[in-house]
Amino acid sequence: MNVHVFEHVPFEGLAGIEPWLKRHGHAITRTRCWTDDPMPDMALFDWLIVMGGPMGVYDERTYPWLTHEKSCIREAITKGKRILGICLGSQLIAEALGARVYPHRRKEIGWYPVTPTPEGSGSRWFQFARGGSFPAFHWHGDTFDLPAGSTHLAISDACENQAFSYGEQVLALQFHIDSTIESIDQLIVNCREDLRPGPYVQTAEELRNPSPGVFDRLSSSLSSILETFEAEVEAR
To answer: Which pLDDT tens digit goes with each residue over 133-189?
Structure first.
């Protein structure tokens, strides 16, 4: 299977997704947006993954490639590609589908549980969460309205819209289910100015040291979601 990835800064890559894709023998191509890489040919990939970044979807003047990326995401949706968006990626999908993306009233940075909605609890995407809430890593200041026609899948105490699906092929996650200790360290080093005290902002020490077993559970949850995508792409 051919997987194409949109990356927005050099310090936010595929994190825990990359070793999973390699173990499963999938080919990976990338658009490194900060280097003005060209947008991909739709015929050359089966699955699009849109990663995170510190910019906002509305920052086209500073990052002109955002306009081209959102157009490409719209085309991928229209053509029925499987699409996974994480953090900024979820916001880009939301805007590509016509929803509003805007600064939230508070930042959410740290390890906070995510709870499936009733629709999310019955969704194939969250099969790993049948028992209720699950741990996730967060680093965002923006949020989005739900696109028309989407299904609201998850919430957290700090942010109501944590996940949605659109049709059968699109999954948007505001939270990080891809995080590793290395990817979190990169965020701390490159985005430390975000770690100002707030009701949902943890310290760097708390970010690096979640409860025992959290990284293992996160990895298991990630695998469940990726396996669902894999099965559906290969069944087409």
So the answer is: 999 999 999 999 999 999 999 999 999 999 999 998 999 999 999 999 999 999 999
User: Quick check: 51 pLDDT over 90?
Assistant: yes
- Contact partners, residue 207, CB within 8 Å, separation at least 6: 109, 110, 111, 137, 184, 187, 188
What amino acid is encoded at 74 in this protein?
Answer: R
Total domains in the chain come to 1
pTM summary value:
0.97
Q: What is the CATH number of the domain that holds 37?
A: 3.40.50.880
Among residues 191, 192, 153, the alpha carbon closest in space to that of 175 is found at: 153
Looking at the DSSP bridge assignments, the partners of residue 163 are: 154, 173
Contact call for residues 75 and 68 (beta carbons, < 8 A): no
Confidence tier at 235 by pLDDT (50, 70, 90): low
**Sheet with 170-173, side-by-side order of all strands:** 27-32, 2-7, 47-50, 82-86, 170-173, 163-166, 150-155, 101-116, 134-144
8 Å CB contact between 136 and 86: no
Structural domain span for residue 231:
2-235
Mean pLDDT check: name the lowest of 82-91, 123-132, 137-146, 150-159. 123-132
**Can you tell me the distance from the alpha carbon of 144 to that of 110, in angstroms, rounded to the nearest whole number?**
19
Instruction: Measure CA of the first residue to CA of the last residue in the chain; give whole Å.
Output: 11
